[in-house]
């Protein structure tokens, strides 16, 4: 049904479909706005109400707890198993595909590609049980590393940690990989925030050629590297055209370097329409987990050893993409494009 150029959803859509849309819309709004919302709420209570002691008490707790995001976080299975995450996964739908068994006695670094606009597949796979991580990889505990700034927002930080999110830092990853009994799968979105600026339908750009810190940590702790590629992640939104060298892209790159997060200008669909809004388009997300690259522990790896492991990783990622791309809707003529 079209009204004023907007293509509205019919009224007789099943309730389950509505719940799927609401679940994804809720996550999107929380990710984009809840952090600042919690911050402004605490400031309001502090400055304009008689309950000023509550944010002061929280601030004391924050100072005491500030290292937790770099010390394994505070993930809880109850949060990860909420029903909302099943609706979230069914919206796209999101599927996690295992290609080989992973030994739960080892630690792993999952290299996740691509970043996409808001990392829907990586959050759904590694911060929730929506796609069944624990069933596919029994004995492994998943952690998703995110920007440290996410844990600066009051209240929001505590909710986010409950999903298994931790700080993306050398200290944080080292803490998890140092567990000698194994069983930790640390997911790192290798391309980072800058890769979000390349997230357009049909774009297969991967920013990984100079990002080698994860390889050094894998060597230092003997953690196996596992490439993960989410087919469809870049198809969820449409960005305002921002080719390299354009004024918009230069401004976005400047903000990314200065602020630590990228400001893509994008749109998807709405809750009740299919043309415009913050909700991503319903497009399949297929996250393929490749075979692990076994790494021998070396506490002081040389630059050459890090480079060699990095080359092996990029080769494994390329092979994973090429092997599965046609099955998940990518043309035989499309290939990964590596950037700095």
From TrEMBL:
Compartments, record wording: Endoplasmic reticulum membrane
Broad class of where this protein is predominantly found: endoplasmic reticulum
Topology class, membrane: Multi-pass membrane protein
InterPro entries to which the protein is assigned, alphabetical: DAGAT
Keywords: Acyltransferase, Endoplasmic reticulum, Lipid biosynthesis, Lipid metabolism, Membrane, Transferase, Transmembrane, Transmembrane helix
Gene Ontology CC: one annotated term: endoplasmic reticulum membrane
Entry's EC annotation: 2.3.1.-
Coiled coil: none
Gene Ontology biological process terms from the UniProt entry: triglyceride biosynthetic process
One MF term in the entry's GO annotations: diacylglycerol O-acyltransferase activity
Bilayer-crossing regions: 22-47
Stated family: Belongs to the diacylglycerol acyltransferase family.
PANTHER family to which the protein is assigned, alphabetical: ACYLTRANSFERASE, DIACYLGLYCEROL O-ACYLTRANSFERASE
Protein name: Acyltransferase
Organism: Patella caerulea
